[in-house]
Amino acid sequence: MNTPRGFRYASTYAGIRKVAKDDVALIFSDQPAAAAAVFTTNRVVAGPVTIARKNLRSSAGSMRAILANAGNANCATRTAEQVAVECVNSAADVLNIKPNEVLPASTGVIGVELDSALILRVLPKLHSELDAERFTHAAAAIMTTDTRLKTAYVSVGGAHIAGMCKGSGMIHPRMATTLAFVMTDAAVSRSALQLALSNATGRTFNRISVDGDTSTNDTVAVLANGASNVRPPRKAFEEALTEVLESLAIQIVHDGEGARKLVTIDVAGAPSDAAAEKIARAIANSPLVKTAIAGSDPNWGRILSAAGNAGVVFDPRETDIDMQGMPVCRGGLAADFSEDGLKQKLDAPDCTIRLSIRGRGKGSARFWTCDLTEEYIRINASYRT
Amino acid sequence: MNTPRGFRYASTYAGIRKVAKDDVALIFSDQPAAAAAVFTTNRVVAGPVTIARKNLRSSAGSMRAILANAGNANCATRTAEQVAVECVNSAADVLNIKPNEVLPASTGVIGVELDSALILRVLPKLHSELDAERFTHAAAAIMTTDTRLKTAYVSVGGAHIAGMCKGSGMIHPRMATTLAFVMTDAAVSRSALQLALSNATGRTFNRISVDGDTSTNDTVAVLANGASNVRPPRKAFEEALTEVLESLAIQIVHDGEGARKLVTIDVAGAPSDAAAEKIARAIANSPLVKTAIAGSDPNWGRILSAAGNAGVVFDPRETDIDMQGMPVCRGGLAADFSEDGLKQKLDAPDCTIRLSIRGRGKGSARFWTCDLTEEYIRINASYRT
Prior knowledge:
The first copy, chain A, is an alpha+beta fold and 385 residues long. The first copy, chain A, has 11 helices and 15 strands.
């Protein structure tokens, strides 16, 4: 795989999480990188999100490093912002860069004090171990309830884009989701990067849902250091970035807490793309649809009912639904299909739901979710214990 | 208990549901009753809801009977409205009243044809067995995944109000929830009755959530036949009706699919009552909060995060949270509490969450929900099988 030139990575166990598994990651760009980020829209915002926003502003979007930890969200504590600032300052010291060139990020439990000393102590080690080959190590260090590593690589012209992310629960983005870091050696201006990121997250990270909760720490950040000396056309770069983010977003849903199935929802024929997205989101968030999928039950009535709750005006009698490519509902009524046959098809790890409204509407949207299983409950009823 | 005068009830097994348990209920008023109702806001609407609305309009809110069935929602089928009309016409025939004096209601699976012959066949039997003492029989006949009978009785002046309802899943009202029928022998005008019902549902049935899904069949109907010759003051009647509906609504949440705990959420100090309700609703709908309660985990960070997603502007640093009356969060930060002690208290079947925002806001709201357990998944992954 071709990772972007001019980036190095390191990770280590700092003792933040209970199990001895790497919990701090450092990403470093050998030269200043144009940076863009989108953050949670939750009113409750973690310390590192506040500091990351501030640093992006004061550095005019020029970044050298990302410092991330798992095991503690550094949110809703007395010292949240102070801890983030201390970590950023010390990292800048060690890396010999400016504090506002460091983007901090955290994930984990909310409301528990994070001891900055734990992170400060490992910064020299992280610095000395920075290595272009340790991309996946860094990706592993930000995992929480994740069961799989989540990475994606795309090339555009002669430039490379590599992304990593974490996320499994508290997934229901309004702006971004969880933590995702994307590095590219393409040469992209700050403003073009932010626009490309906003457009790309709108079609990827804002189109996934595991449980309808939006975290306090959501951050998607892109660093473009230009080390390839390739300046891809704007459109081509945005498409490549979208491809990376779509792959990461789908990996999150695939690894949704307790999930056994990835569900792709397509809505077509809505009055507008926004309306289509609303309908798709309502279906994706319905626990009754998600449990039906878990049980391989072709219960299209729940899909139609969820769509009816989306706050979009449409005529159920003009609505067709397919599951796994089989017609289950035509004109709001049961289609003629083999229930046993479809039940078997729904046992597959990939499920598709397609809802289309007949008529003149041209609005469409794709959304991803997962099934809702007993394992989700088990994971979340005992997350802290 | 004092049931309202002038009402009689009957129920029987018509063969709609698979298990041989009563699935049709008939409620009859010996004299014309003022009737008011609120219905689902889902765009997908069951046949009986359409016909009930039509009958209420054409009879100017004068009703004699409610005909309800469980086991089939009579929704999203070719014949839904036609079946509702046939049942209403036949019931009117048998009862010797006008068709538009019958309010139909259905609950059960969506998208499966309901055979009207099953209901038509049992109408003479239901008619002949009408009995003032069979109130609870009728209440039992409308149960689906319910595990408990849900009834409530209140007296106001010399008049009586008795309510029954069903509901366990697909509970997240925007207008009403599931099926609820309230009978009173108070003398109340049609317009006063509709106003009282709208106000009362706003504070009760619209303040509960089991799973965030709004059904296609939700109906709350009140019949006031005046048989007591008591005309209670408007305010007193509304309060008594609210008491009945609150009791029924709480019984639904208590019996939420898979629920082991009733959770009462109070929000205070919000910019407005509507804002308080939004925050309470966001907490009530958060799967992460609901699974934490299931695990007796005093994870107040999830409560604060859910509140932050409500779309209400407030300062987390001004926010206090109590669970079971114990402070767990003060000013957006962890309060000093015994985690083990609180864990034990959270094992109780009744849990309380109180979120209050310091400052000048006077908005408050109470909301009810239940914990989210593995049993919810089991029930809904196999509902139709």
